[in-house]
Specification:
0% helix, seven-stranded mixed sheet, 11 strands, globular, 126 residues
């Protein structure tokens, strides 16, 4: 059974950093594309970053490019999102997700992802 559990969210001041984790079970991370998404109050869920199967490529939303880094530790079956230089507009619930198409290039679109975690709150505020 596929399961995704996010952790690492919290309250941080503008300019600070957080690292989110997504612990996965029920599948082998390296075979599948995965992504991080977020949803702010009153807004639609949006793609933040994704990583292709085999870690062959990564993609970022323009608003986080240069500040966020997506990565995976396949031995730990865990995906990460390192977030630096956080801004108040980064405040949202962050979700991880997996596309169960084997050996796929990741796509920055919600509809391609089959399983989702429950989300972790990130609040950037002084």
């Amino acid at each position: 059974q596929v399961q995704l559990v996010e952790s690492g969210g919290g309250l941080v001041q503008p300019g600070g950093s957080l690292r989110l984790s997504c612990a996965a079970s029920g599948f082998t991370l390296d075979y599948y594309a995965m992504g991080w998404f977020r949803q702010a109050p009153g807004k639609e869920r949006e793609a933040v970053a994704c990583i292709s199967s085999g870690d062959t490529s990564t993609y970022y939303a323009d608003v986080v490019k240069g500040r966020f880094t997506i990565s995976r530790d396949n031995a730990k079956n865990t995906m990460y999102l390192q977030m630096n230089s956080l801004k108040t507009e980064d405040t949202a619930v962050y979700y991880c997700a997996v596309d169960m198409t084997v050996q796929a290039m990741c796509v920055m679109m919600i509809r391609f992802y089959d399983y989702w975690g429950q989300g972790t709150q990130v609040t950037v505020s002084s």
